[in-house]
Amino acid sequence: GIEPIRLVELLPSFTSRSPIECRLIEVDLSQKPDYEALSYVWGDPSRTIAICVDYCKMEVTENLWSALFRLRLKRKPKVIWADALCIDQQSTDDKRRQVQIMRDVYKTASQVIIWLGEHTDSSEILHCAKELQTDEELAQMNASCEQPSQIAALSHLLQRPWFSRTW
User: Looking at the record's lineage, which domain of life comes first (predicted)?
Assistant: First the structure.
């Protein structure tokens, strides 16, 4: 059978000033739980912010904190899978087991959220690219993207760390 996994129940908050709070829940992937998987880069391990996990303080990287902050809903919990929280980072055995089933974790998710980092001026290029469905449409956009600022924005976006990471 498939190993059980932990998911994060990101608790809601009506105010952005509230600390990030979550609960870990254990589920069986074969039961097709409803969750979204988060794909992101950890970022600088020396730059952390505290969140509350199961009523305990836990340090997470600034990049993960930003993703959780942006994903948190106002009225209801959001269930996600994020490796830094859902895999016991102190346990070599847990890391080994969970890495072996990571493909299933992403495949079973209702969707995968790619967190590229906080919004910058270059993020605007995503608005003109979000409707692209085919390589032909991309080529048409490329041909019409004559403004150097758009090309520079796309180049800057593609230089974000998420695009250069390896599995």
Answer: Eukaryota
Let me know whether 106 and 141 are in one domain.
no
Confirm if 22 and 10 have CB atoms less than 8 A apart. Answer: yes
Tell me which residue range forms the domain holding 75. Answer: 4-114
- Provide the whole-model pTM: 0.77
**Which value, in Å, is the radius of gyration of the alpha carbons in the chain?**
18
Collect all residues with Cβ–Cβ distance below 8 Å to 39 and sequence separation of at least 6. 106, 112, 113, 114, 115, 162
Measured distance CA(91)–CA(78) in Å, rounded? 26
For residue 51 the two structure tokens come to 């969140």
Structural domains of the chain, count: 2
Question: Nearest 5 degrees, angle CA 7-CA 12-CA 17?
Answer: 120
Residue with tokens 């996600």: 80
Same domain? 45 vs 68: yes
Q: Do both 154 and 78 map to the same domain?
A: no
User: CA dihedral in degrees (155, 158, 159, 163; nearest 10)?
Assistant: -160
Q: What is the mean pLDDT of the chain?
A: 83
Segment 97-114 shows an average pLDDT of 92
